[in-house]
Design brief:
The protein is mainly alpha-helical. The protein has 3 domains: 53-120; 123-218, Serine Threonine Protein Phosphatase 5, Tetratricopeptide repeat (Alpha Horseshoe); 227-289. The chain contains 16 helices and no strands. It has helices spanning 2-22, 25-36, 55-69, 74-87, 92-98, 105-119, 125-140, 143-156, 161-173, 177-190, 195-207, 211-223, 232-244, 248-258, 263-266, 269-289. The longest helix is centred in the first third of the chain and has 21 residues, at 2-22. It is elongated and about 80 Å long. The chain starts with a helix and ends with a helix.
């Protein structure tokens, strides 16, 4: 009788583990999120899983994604990133997010590397894929490898604009501009008012020397919430778009305006360059007419 009970128990256990093994990676990640995320979680449309067992971290991370893609306040971003580290010090993407506004290259790469190494122990495959991709992109400069792992994330989350946009960045860094453009365009299909998607469409057209298209999409980015005062790189890029479109006076006026946003803008060499190039062109035009 005990032998029969043992066989029955064994068959039940084998059946359980068989069912577990048949689940897809996405099903396992969805179950993890359902177990640990707060019931009222607002993903802001980004839909990526958060590899933390702390409910508050799930919302904080999604808020940080929204802050990044919608040009939110830098101080608020840093405050929430710090809160994530307090709650879950070993959450890899939390450390990655905290590195976003670090200006020292060595420190930045060290933080990305730390996040990548921690991700090797992550529960979720998507977390491992994302950190491998970010490490390949930002530390190793291995853009093909970054594409491979970002694609794995997209395969898991085909409707995540954050995943698709990130894949676009790996193509962009590798100068595969048409593929990058398609990713950015697709990200705005899922969130039509996604300013970061339009900004990088503008960047692709700029690289392709289609400056009229570039200005069209930078204006779209601004229409949907891009804020140069919250992103120095956006401000620098916009100034050069005006210059390339031969809007020299507008470029100079724009630079004068954004310099008022703080020291980082006042000390920007790229803003100075856009201003000086535009001024030289205007002076040359005036001289030719005199």
């Amino acid at each position: 009788m005990s032998r029969i009970l043992h066989l029955v128990t064994l068959s039940l256990l084998l059946g359980f583990f068989s069912c577990q093994s048949q689940k897809t990676e996405r099903q396992l990640e969805d179950e993890f999120v359902q177990k640990y995320a707060p019931e009222n979680l607002n993903t802001h449309g980004f839909t990526l899983a958060v590899d933390s067992k702390v409910p508050e971290v799930h919302q904080l991370f999604n808020d940080l994604e929204a802050n990044f893609f919608f040009y939110g306040d830098k101080k608020e971003f840093e405050k929430k990133a710090e809160r994530i580290i307090e709650l879950d010090p070993n959450y890899p993407s939390g450390i990655l997010m905290k590195s976003f506004y670090v200006t020292d290259t060595t420190e930045y790469k060290n933080m990305v590397t730390k996040a990548y190494l921690l991700s090797k122990k992550s529960t979720l495959k998507s977390e491992q894929y994302i950190l491998q991709a970010e490490y390949s992109l930002l530390v190793e400069d291995d853009y093909k490898k970054a594409q491979k792992y970002f694609q794995k994330v997209v395969d898991l989350y085909p409707k995540s604009p954050a995943a698709i946009w990130s894949l676009g960045m790996a193509y962009y860094y590798n100068k595969e501009y048409d593929k990058a453009l398609e990713c950015y365009r697709k990200s705005t299909e899922f969130i039509p008012h996604l300013p970061k998607g339009y900004e990088f469409m503008a960047a692709v057209y700029y690289r392709k020397k289609n400056y009229r298209k570039a200005i069209e999409y930078i204006e779209k980015a601004k229409k949907y919430g891009a804020k140069p005062q919250n992103d120095i790189y956006f401000a620098e890029f916009e100034s050069f778009i005006y210059y390339r479109n031969k809007q020299f006076k507008k470029a100079m006026q724009y630079v004068e305006k954004v310099r008022e946003y703080g020291d980082i803008f006042k000390n920007s060499k790229d803003l100075d360059r856009a201003y000086n190039l535009s001024k030289a062109k205007l002076d040359s035009i005036k001289l030719s007419k005199s």
